[in-house]
Specification:
By secondary structure, this protein is of the alpha+beta class. The protein has 36 helices and 36 strands. The chain is about 35% helix and about 15% strand.
Length: about 1150
């Protein structure tokens, strides 16, 4: 956090919070609830919102807050402009009982103040802290938060770190063209006096082991001769090496870095390698090529380097860092979840070294599968399969053989022949032997007589029957129909079916692993869903430039059951499939919810000791009392069957909690909680039957039923029931299943939950090496409850870390595989090419592996970054040097990274002594003849940067031969970050790119917006937006009846490193409504922008506008541009419109 603060990371967060204050002010001013005259911008103010009143306190009135907390004011209502809860809030008090964050039934206090004005801000902070203390003491359900407010004047400029500056060199020919009657190129470097001794120490001297400045101090009379010597040394350094000297120059640089590391330490070797690469154009080529003694070492190192098969790469804690994200800001963002989790575990009693060891190299095991395998024959299962004319879609039907409507529906689907591979599974609860018999008969008929014989079999079985007698004498009817339909006289004996038996709803359908249940839904949508799935997959294949009929069946099924992401690799990867009815329980993906061990242990529990621990928590949150009893009975039956399993089993802990619900009779949850707490595992089955039989639920009847089922009187303990409340803060009050930190819910229990689903939930691992981590915790004698907590925190940290990484969302398994190549490349490299920087502590929080060319672009930029991570965060660095054979100069520019101000200690406390100054980038170079420099800012891709002040200097033509004190010898330039980029991908409900739609980042209130904050979705679905840091609503303008369904919430631009991933946008059909952002789009699309019309000329002679696009870089090109503009204006009568790319224009 300290390191992020020193890069002014907080400035983006503060600016976003100020945007929320502006939104609230605008909304309240419209409703006359806030007077802008008496409560001006910059004044501290408080918004007090209670169930019965809505008031604003401003200025000196904030001191009255404590007196108003428990008073009901005049009834009033208001509409907020900003969200009532945000990740940008500083929460001072938040009651544990607060379940619904946006409910109007709770007291909310929101204070706004500018911390840049300590006097006024202290008044507000004092007031809201006092109110928070009073509310906490009284136990009142409330929330108290602080948000940053807009200052009265212009806010101070934020000094941002995390960037670098590159000075690109150009040839002597370019220098000659750029003199413009100034002093000739070589004249300024002619030395006839001792003034050269005032220049920057020239590396050309160190190449020869000479310190001219030191000699001049001892022998002042020889200054002129020493200057001549320096000039001769520089001239020698400027001479390019011969081709055979250039070939192994990288190997010589590697040998030099290795020698530095052995003579001093590895960090010095890393630092010296960076210095060579950063200043390579100053003459390091000649320095490295000098001397024959190093030639043998260079040949040997080059041979070793050719055995390293990995090119330049960087791996941080198992993450292969993309080239665009090799900066301090993205790396800090990706590492922040790790440090948060370590701090959380260390504060819970786990040693910090063990926490780091468990979290540092944890790799995600992939997302939990969301597709269900119901016996798809394309996956190798035996099934009653009908090929209806398509292999792209697989549709499985699970029907009740004794239900006439189900059989009629099957016949209808077979008659309509949707383009799919259709397979049948049957269930017959009242006649268990019938379903396997019918499946065997149908499979035999299809194998010998074709699908028509199987269709006749189904038709004969249901002919002239009703639901009451459909399964009467069914065995004889099936065998007789089978003999009649068999193509030869001797029909074989029907074998017993090895059917795919797993718990799925009846009736239901599986379409490429996606479950639909209920006969009404199937009759309405089955064939439409098959067609939609086929179109979606066919369109995806078109993106790969492939046709489905040209692909093997294995690739089609891999893609059909895999994630719907446009990447050819998913055709090859075998997806993970569910074998239990998980999506039917909860349509929401599981989330990581670590529960404090002491909170979980306070609940009643049941334990079955055996192997590794598995902790269960079931929340029974049904609002209807009868439904609550049915859900409880279903849970008890499932766990009774789970407890009855034999063989190798884990140690299972079960906790049941009944949240208090306002819609349920007040005493029912507490009685049920007490009833479950007194039950033993052997009584689960009997208690489930008793609860399921209750149709009229009251606390008295429930208590009597429990007493009878358990054989003992009930003891309702209110204090025991209070233990549930701390857990509900993290889990919510809906019915849910919590397994070792993964929360599945809200659950829609319908009788299908069973032990197989519970077992499957235990096996859904989120982290690759969970077993190894479990063994480390056991070796450390960590309790089972703490183990579950650690694993949950670890899984959440891995998920958050992966989400924080920028770039495309690649599959985690491939990410891990590629990253490990960097690590293995280091260990397989020859020791003469290895640099290892050991950590100062026992366990390094960051393990960094890198393969680097000593004279590559990475060598210019990474050493300073790696040194910073080592010094500040104690990173352990493993560097493999991989020099390349060279045929031309490898580096054509100088480079520097913005340094970070160092603190006396790396913690947050040392920030109090920091004056907030960031030094920026400073490059001091010795004069070099024949070089012209061009300045280029190297910043995160998310930044839109422009130079705003260069003192009149031409940043595209900086003379490198200017001597100190002469004109142009010093250049100062200031850049501004105008906005942050946001990239995304938009698609419609069919999975097709939402081409042509217009999207915009709309402020929470008002229509003001930065240029470029709107974008038209291009043909591929890609769009790009830009805005200043803030919280925005994604707005849509379209001529179709559509609505945005994703993203659901607000869009936060609060990270200087960028959002971190593409913004996924989904449009679905919807009713045409008044667009609340129509005014925003109308404001942005003025008449001149809509028509793109030009200006000037004589429209009587020429009406058509001529559009002229130009990219001008540097003052000289801009002078040519002005001449061109004057010329074209003079020689045409048509209207003109010039388009200039602002980012390339000079600062002046």
């Amino acid at each position: 956090l300290s390191l992020r603060a020193r890069h002014a990371f907080a400035s983006a967060v503060v600016e976003a919070a100020r945007g929320m204050e502006r939104a609230d002010r605008a909304a309240l001013e419209e409703q006359n609830l806030l007077n802008p005259q008496s409560c001006a911008i910059g004044e501290p103010w408080i918004l007090l919102q209670s169930p019965k009143s809505f008031r604003v306190l401003c200025g000196e009135e904030v001191a009255k807050l404590a007196d108003l907390v428990f008073q009901d004011g005049e009834p009033a209502s208001g509409q907020r402009g900003a969200p009532r809860q945000s990740g940008l809030d500083h929460v001072l008090y938040d009651s544990p009982e607060l379940q619904n964050d946006t409910a109007d039934s709770v007291l909310e206090i929101c204070g706004y103040a500018d911390l840049g004005d300590p006097k006024s801000a202290s008044k507000l902070l004092h007031a809201i802290w006092k109110a928070a203390d009073l509310l906490q003491a009284s136990g009142k359900v409330a929330r108290v938060i602080f948000r940053h407010a807009t200052p009265a004047g212009s806010p101070p400029r934020a000094l941002l770190g995390g960037f670098g500056l590159e000075l690109m060199t150009r040839s002597a020919d370019e220098v000659a063209k750029s003199t413009d009657n100034d002093t000739e190129a070589g004249e300024s470097s002619t030395v006839s006096d001792s003034s050269c001794l005032n220049e920057v120490a020239d590396p050309a001297e160190s190449f020869h082991g000479i310190d001219i400045s030191k000699i001049a101090k001892n022998f002042p009379s020889g200054s002129s001769a020493l200057c001549q010597l320096r000039s001769d040394l520089v001239a020698e350094a400027e001479t390019p090496p011969l081709p055979w000297e250039l070939t192994r120059l990288g190997a010589r640089a590697a040998w030099r870095a290795k020698q530095m590391a052995e003579n001093s330490d590895a960090l010095q070797g890393l630092r010296s390698m960076g210095e060579v690469a950063q200043d390579y154009p100053s003459g390091w080529a000649r320095a490295l090529s000098a001397g024959d003694a190093n030639a043998a070492h260079a040949r040997e190192l080059m041979a070793f380097a050719e055995d390293i098969k990995v090119s330049d790469s960087l791996q941080v804690n198992g993450w292969k860092v993309p080239l665009k994200q090799r900066g301090i800001l993205p790396l800090l963002r990706a590492s922040l979840p790790l440090f948060r989790a370590v701090e959380l575990l260390a504060s819970s009693g786990l040693s910090q070294s063990l926490a780091l060891e468990l979290l540092r190299d944890a790799q995600a095991g992939g997302k939990p599968p969301s597709k269900v395998d119901t016996g798809d024959p394309r996956l190798g299962h035996e099934a009653v399969a009908f090929d209806l004319g398509g292999k792209v879609v697989g549709a499985g039907l699970l029907m009740n053989l004794c239900n006439l409507k189900h059989l009629k529906f099957i016949q209808k689907v077979l008659k309509n022949r949707p383009p799919a591979v259709l397979w049948l599974r049957f269930d017959s609860p009242s006649h268990p032997a019938l379903a396997p018999l019918m499946e065997s008969a149908l499979k035999e008929l299809i194998s010998k007589g074709g699908s028509e014989a199987a269709k006749k079999m189904l038709k004969r079985f249901s002919a002239k029957r009703t639901d009451k007698d459909l399964c009467d004498d069914a065995v004889d009817r099936i065998q007789q129909a089978f003999r009649e339909l068999w193509p030869s006289k001797d029909a074989p004996k029907l074998p017993s079916s090895g059917s795919f038996r797993l718990p799925f709803p009846v009736p239901s359908a599986s379409i490429n692993g996606r479950i639909l249940s209920g006969l009404d839904l199937l009759e309405r949508t089955l064939e439409q869903e098959i067609q939609r799935e086929m179109e979606m997959i066919s369109f995806s294949f078109m993106q790969f430039r492939r046709r489905a009929d040209q692909l093997p069946l294995q690739q089609i099924t891999n893609f059909a059951y895999g994630p719907k992401q446009l990447h050819p690799m998913f055709l090859q990867m075998e997806p993970k499939l569910l074998t239990a009815w998980y999506p039917g329980i909860s349509a929401v993906s599981p989330r990581h919810v670590p529960l404090r061990p002491e909170h979980l242990a306070a609940l009643p529990r049941w334990m079955l000791p055996a192997g590794p621990p598995v902790l269960y928590l079931v929340l029974l949150g049904a609002k209807d009392p009868v439904k609550l009893m049915q859900d409880t009975a279903e849970i008890l039956r499932a766990f009774h069957d789970l407890w009855s399993l034999t063989g190798e089993q884990p140690t299972r802990y079960l906790h049941l909690a009944v949240p208090e619900c306002s819609n349920t009779a007040t005493a029912v949850p507490s009685v049920l909680h007490a009833c479950l707490g007194q039950a033993k595992t052997t009584a689960f089955k009997g208690l489930a039957e008793a609860l399921a039989s209750l149709t009229d639920v009251t606390s008295e009847k429930l208590e009597a039923t429990c007493s009878e089922a358990l054989g003992e009187s009930m003891n309702v303990d209110v204090k025991s029931y209070e233990a549930v409340k701390p857990i509900l803060k993290d889990t919510g009050a809906d019915t849910a299943l919590w397994v070792n930190g993964r929360l599945y819910g809200p659950l829609e229990l319908d009788g299908s939950l069973n032990f197989a689903i519970l077992q499957h939930a235990e096996q859904l691992g989120d982290v690759e090496d969970a077993d190894e981590a479990l063994q480390k915790l056991k070796d450390a004698n960590v309790s089972d409850y703490m183990i579950a907590y650690v694993l949950a925190v670890r899984a959440r940290a891995v998920a958050e870390g992966f989400a924080a990484r920028s770039g495309e969302a690649e599959d985690e398994a491939e990410q891990t595989q590629d990253a490990r190549k960097t690590e293995s490349a280091y260990y397989s490299a020859d020791p003469s090419l290895q640099l290892h920087v050991a950590p100062k502590g026992d366990v390094a929080p960051l393990r960094i592996f890198s393969v680097m060319d000593p004279l590559g672009q990475a060598a210019q930029r990474l050493p300073a970054l790696l040194q910073l991570l080592h010094e500040e965060l104690d990173a352990e660095i493993f560097l493999a040097l991989r020099p390349q054979r060279l045929a031309e100069s490898p580096l054509t520019g100088y480079f520097r990274t913005a340094p970070v101000p160092k603190m006396s200690s790396p913690g947050l406390s040392a920030l109090a002594t920091w004056d907030g100054h960031l030094p920026g980038v400073r490059i001091e170079l010795p004069p070099r003849r024949g070089q012209l420099l061009s300045a280029q800012l190297n910043a995160p891709d998310a930044w839109l940067c422009s130079a705003v002040d260069s003192g009149g200097a031409d940043l595209d033509n900086i003379r490198a031969d200017a001597r100190r004190g002469s004109a142009g010898a010093q250049v100062r330039v200031r850049y501004v970050v105008e906005a942050l980029f946001l990239e995304g991908f938009a698609e419609d409900g069919m999975g097709r790119p939402a081409t042509g739609r217009q999207l915009a980042l709309a402020p929470l209130r008002g229509t003001e917006s930065a240029a470029g904050s709107d974008s038209v979705v291009v043909k591929s679905g890609y769009f790009q937006l830009r805005q200043t840091p803030g919280v925005f609503q994604l707005a849509l303008q379209t001529q179709k009846a559509e609505k945005l369904v994703k993203p659901k919430g607000l869009v936060h631009l609060t990270d200087l490193a960028g959002r971190g991933s593409l913004l996924e946008t989904l449009l679905m059909p919807g009713e045409r409504q008044d667009d609340p952002y129509a005014k925003l789009f109308a404001t942005k699309n003025s008449d001149s922008i809509k028509t793109f019309g030009g200006a000037g000329g004589d429209r009587k002679k020429c009406k058509e506008t001529i559009h002229i696009f130009s990219v001008a870089s540097g003052l000289r090109y801009e002078r040519l541009l002005r001449i061109m503009m004057m010329s074209v204006r003079k020689h045409t009568k048509c209207p003109l419109r010039f388009w200039l790319v602002e980012n390339f224009l000079s600062a002046s």
